[in-house]
UniProtKB/TrEMBL annotation:
Residues 427-467 are annotated as: Disordered. This is Uncharacterized protein LOC103491533. Residues 448-460 have a biased composition (Low complexity). The gene is LOC103491533. PANTHER family: OS02G0717600 PROTEIN.
Length: 483
């Protein structure tokens, strides 16, 4: 019976020899391990130089395990600097300057090498045959494509100096320039067991914005969104319910303002869909400082409130010695009157005094002019400067005032900023020049005429009449001029 002849292998005895090779554990920050300048998986280690005295050359006794012992002893002796010389192919050589670091994920007394030039690049050692090393070196292009497909973007957390940024980057320290009002769905009956749908809440938000603009409040629409609020309700209160595992119920929620989640004991949790309307002043906010002197018997201006809940300057005295005249408030009031706009007060001592919520009964929650007048009167009696912010209606006016004003000084954490003073108009107080990173409202000419204000002489500002018992404050209806 003839015997099968054994076919000779194409590998030479040298290629079947075990060698110490490189295993890339973590790539560099710029993927330079795929270039010829850095070590690659499959490179054959020819020489290791540790510190300035120890040099080990191929072949390495006991392979990888023997090298790990050498690395362990060197690390104990605090000799962590290492130079690795490798062979790529038959006569191509490369070197890596690295340091010895523990590889905790592989166990005790296991070490890897971290590149000196790029700490992200980490390599280890592995026993392979020379043939396997040559195959890995030849498959470099395929392995590069595979590495590209496997590589995922990493995320993480970075520290941020919030306190310093909130103090330095905001026009009003620790207070945002985002303005909004939240509208709750209106109750459909007196006992508040049923509520109007979402479309009704959106319509009321639209009506509030249009009415405020028609009144003369210099604001512009920015965005609108629904906002979910959790509450505890009974099954009869919810206009729609959602059962577990039922997607068909979701179609009933499109216009529902209040819906609940149903369980075995009935509806316990209700979701109220309120509407948040975001808006911004047409020309930004302008800070004004009203300084007080001995002998000031009045502030020289009156305040009122619109039906939409905005506080505004309703009148100013013509007395040039009044605090309002010295601060330039009277000049701003006349400019607003000429533009058929209200001079809205948005902040007092850096605190916002704007309307912020509409209840389920339809009432607008806003600030009381009586308490505000009392606070301003206390400023006058204590001779403590008053810091106000007002809405501007023209960004060109704001830009002209800013360009003429010097840079204001940074405020301290204990008191508001005293804005810079301007020569013309007299003693105007101006904000800091906004930087490029701050979001500013769009200019007024970027919007349609739907937000314009009628200049009909018969139109007047709707306000609530209140009295504060202080002669320097007179609350009354004030009609805009058609100039």
């Amino acid at each position: 019976m003839p015997m099968d002849r054994i076919q000779p292998t194409s590998e030479s005895p040298s290629t079947r020899l075990m060698v110490l090779s490189i295993e890339c554990i973590k790539g560099s920050s710029r993927a330079d391990e795929w270039t010829g300048d850095m070590l690659q998986t499959g490179d054959i280690v020819e020489e290791l130089t540790i510190g300035s005295s120890l040099c080990v050359r191929s072949p390495f006794k006991h392979g990888r395990s023997g090298i790990q012992k050498i690395l362990h002893n060197s690390f104990k002796d605090k000799q962590t600097s290492i130079l690795v010389r490798v062979r790529r192919g038959r006569d191509d050589f490369s070197e890596l300057q690295a340091c010895i670091v523990p590889n905790d994920s592989a166990g005790k007394k296991q070490y890897v090498l971290r590149s000196i030039t790029d700490p992200n690049y980490v390599v280890g050692f592995m026993d392979r045959t020379e043939s396997e090393c040559f195959d890995l070196q030849a498959s470099r292009s395929d392995r590069m494509v595979n590495a590209l497909e496997r590589t995922r973007l990493q995320d993480g957390y970075v520290t941020y100096s919030w306190e310093r940024r909130m103090h330095e980057s905001l026009s009003v320290s620790y207070s945002s320039s985002f303005l909004s009002i939240l509208l709750l769905p209106k109750a459909a009956n007196e006992v508040a067991t049923r509520y109007n749908d979402l479309e009704d809440t959106l319509a009321r938000a639209n009506a509030w914005l249009n009415s405020a603009q028609a009144t003369g409040v210099p604001i512009v629409f920015m965005n609108i969104q629904t906002e979910s609020l959790l509450t505890k309700i009974s099954g009869d209160t919810a206009s729609s319910t959602v059962s577990a595992g039922s997607l068909s119920d979701l179609s009933n929620l499109a216009n529902a303002s209040l819906y609940g989640f149903e369980d075995y004991h009935g509806v316990d949790i209700g979701v109220v869909r309120s509407v948040r309307l975001w808006y911004a002043p047409l020309g930004g906010e302008l800070p004004i400082e009203i300084k007080l002197k001995e002998g000031d018997s009045k502030l020289g201006f009156s305040i009122g409130r619109t039906e939409e809940g905005f506080i505004y300057v309703s009148a100013v005295d013509e007395d040039d010695n009044a605090p309002s005249s010295r601060s330039g408030l009277n000049h701003l009031y006349k400019e607003a009157e000429n533009a058929s706009k209200l001079l809205i007060i948005s902040r007092v001592s850096n605190q916002k005094v704007l309307p912020w919520i509409v209840s389920s009964t339809g009432a607008i929650r806003c600030f009381d002019t009586v308490s505000l007048s009392q606070k301003l009167s206390l400023h006058r009696h204590a001779k403590v400067p008053i810091f106000l912010h007002v809405f501007l209606w023209d960004r060109e006016l704001l830009a002209s005032l800013i360009s003429a004003a010097p840079i204001r000084q940074r405020s301290t954490s204990s008191q508001p900023v005293a804005p810079a003073r301007l020569a013309l108009p007299p003693e105007f107080q101006l904000p800091r020049q906004p930087n490029d990173n701050q979001i500013q409202p769009l200019p007024a000419d970027a919007f349609s005429e739907s937000g314009s204000v009628s200049t009909d002489e018969s139109s007047s500002i709707r306000t609530e009449r209140e009295t504060a018992g202080e002669l320097s404050f007179r609350f009354h209806e004030f009609s805009l001029s058609s100039n």
